[in-house]
Structure formats: C-alpha cells, structure tokens
Design a protein that fits this description.
Elements (H helix, E strand, L loop, with lengths): L9 E5 L5 E6 H6 L4 E9 L5 E6 L10 E2 L2 E4 L6 H13 L7 E10 L2 E11 L11 E7 L1 H6 L6 H13 L1
Parallel strand pairs: 3-8
Antiparallel strand pairs: 1-2, 3-6, 4-5, 4-9, 7-8
Amino acid sequence: MNKKGLRVEWVDVVDGNNQVVGVAERAKVRRENLCHRASYILVLDEADRILVQRRTLSKDFCPGMLDACAGGVVTTGELMEPSARRELAEELGIRDVPLRAFGDFYAEGEGYRVWGGLFSCRYQGPLQLQAEEVSEVCWMSQAEIAALAVEFTPDSLLAIATWQARR
C-alpha cells in the first residue's frame, strides 16, 4: 500500500537485454518511461480474425485507442505465460485456453520501452470485459487492422508483425 492507501503494483525494470536491473512502482515505470516487461496475447477466431479491444479513456497508456492484443505489464517476479493467462482472465474473462508462444520482442516509442512476451490463442466463446480497461471489442481481419493502423496502439501493431513473421 502506498501513502494514499492504494495497492502498489511492483514491476521489474529491465535493460536492453531483458535482464532485471531493478524494481519500481508501476506509476514510476510509466512516469519515467522505464523499460519493463509486458505480455501480449492475440485472440484469434477460426478465420484468423483478431479480437480487437477499445481501451478505456482511463488507461495510462494509449487511452481510447484500439488494441489488437490482450495483455499488460508483468509484475515483479511473474513469468510471461502466467502474466498472459492472468491478463486474458482479467480483461476478457478467457480462462483455460491453450496458449501458443512466439517468443519475446522489443518495442520502443514515445512513452514506452517494453520487452513483450508474445502469445496467441483461439477463442470464440463468451467474453466478460473488464470495465476499467476495455470499453468494447470486435473481430477484425488483418487487412482491416492495417487500414485503421493509426487508431491502434503502436506496440500491438508490432506484436502483429512479430506474430506474422514467426508463425
């Protein structure tokens, strides 16, 4: 808990080789643009359409933008796959699905420096959206995503490109 009585989320700070060099509060990681880890999960239907989320306006990164991945910041000591499973359950209510791993990738841009652990899963069942993070979802083809690229978080576009190159 911090001074205001709020739960503190601790995050591993990593270097350019994805090695842990420290630990910081999530708010500090965002504020100072410290390099950290995050999980990225592409949720696909049987036609390879991608489940796209509209991020809420309260998000600390890319509020209101479209996101082609479920996922989020990996907490201190957490491994990538458990993080991916936790994020799928929290954001979309998806549990107990097989995940396919595509390795790590590095993404950097204005306001972010992150080592991402990339996964995909197939799912077409019911969803339970996390109201604090996801305002709406829809299924989109890769061509539809490319046509609206300026509306997407840049790291999720890099995740798609990495997935396409490695699958």
